[in-house]
Specification:
Blueprint lengths: L10 H14 L16 E5 L3 H13 L3 E5 L2 H11 L3 E5 L7 H9 L6 E5 L4 H9 L4 E4 L4 H19 L7 E3 L2 E4 L4 E3 L5 E3 L2 H12 L4 E3 H9 L9 H13 L9 E4 L3 E4 L3
Helix pairs in contact: 3-4, 7-8, 7-9
Length: 267
């Protein structure tokens, strides 16, 4: 069976190709070979079969290995069994919803997570980011935008995973190891960070004493082509403060420079 070529399609033609393929297909595409072991594995979690089918096809066409779950409990089981490189997680699911699923994921894993949700209001985006999501994409979305977000998150994660031990950094009595996503505080306590928290903390620590603007942080942590959401930086800064500051409401390390951005203090 012929499958549409997606790599060079426009967003409109890409969506059209997917609709035509879905209407004609019954089950998985017959001519897609199994992914080799070295391919990135993505876990798609959604209780809507058509959405899972289309998203899985789109990702496989781009060379990813895909596993899927229809609810949060199944997703948590597959997370332990399949060890995916990325999770695409729907919010509105029966039983354990996406937010609770992410809470349980973050209690055990630092795997990057992108929320895909019909709940696109700012309050929902902020809630997802505060729980530890690496990105939040509102439905409906263009297939090309989903692929761009997936590639960006995996590229950032891979860059840190392939980092040199010299990327470890110390400032203000805090020791950060990007390879393990852990920070040792001046008290000796070790805290676990998400990949985004690690990149953000690494960025401000290596620029200790300098004021970094919202745009500078977005460019350095998320990438130059990432637009971001209102208050996104503030959400992650607040999360970091709860982990590295003795008093998050009165931070001494990650301080706000009102109207400009943030600065990491070493004293």
């Amino acid at each position: 069976m012929h499958t549409p070529s997606l790599s060079h399609s426009t967003p409109a033609s890409l969506a059209s190709d997917l609709r035509r393929w879905y209407n004609a297909a019954d089950g998985e595409p017959a001519d897609l070979a199994e992914s080799p072991q070295d391919k990135m594995r993505i876990l798609v979690v959604d209780d809507d079969p058509p959405s899972v089918k289309m998203t899985s096809f789109l990702l496989r066409e781009e060379g990813y290995e895909v596993v899927s779950a229809s609810n949060g409990r199944e997703a948590l089981q597959l997370l332990e069994k399949e060890r995916p490189d990325l999770v695409l997680l729907d919010v509105m699911m029966p039983g354990i919803d996406g937010f609770e699923t992410l809470r349980q994921i973050r209690a055990r894993h630092s795997v990057p997570v992108i929320f895909l949700s019909a709940k696109g209001e700012t309050v929902d985006r902020v809630a997802g980011l505060e729980l530890g999501a690496d990105d939040y994409l509102a439905k409906p979305f263009e297939p090309s935008e989903l692929l761009a977000r997936v590639k960006a998150v995996l590229r950032r994660t891979e860059a840190y995973a392939m980092g040199d031990p010299s990327d470890r950094i110390e400032a203000g009595g805090i020791r950060l190891d990007p390879l393990t996503n852990r920070a040792e505080l001046p008290s000796g306590r070790v805290v676990d960070l998400t990949p985004i928290e690690t990149r953000l903390l690494h960025c401000v620590m290596r620029n200790a004493g300098r004021v970094l603007t919202h745009d500078q942080l977005l460019n350095n942590v998320w990438g130059p082509n990432y637009g971001g959401y209102p208050n996104q930086i503030a959400v992650y800064v607040r999360r970091l403060r709860t982990k590295i500051e003795e008093d998050p409401d009165n931070p001494t390390h990650l301080v706000t420079v009102r109207g400009v951005g943030y600065r990491f203090e070493v004293d």
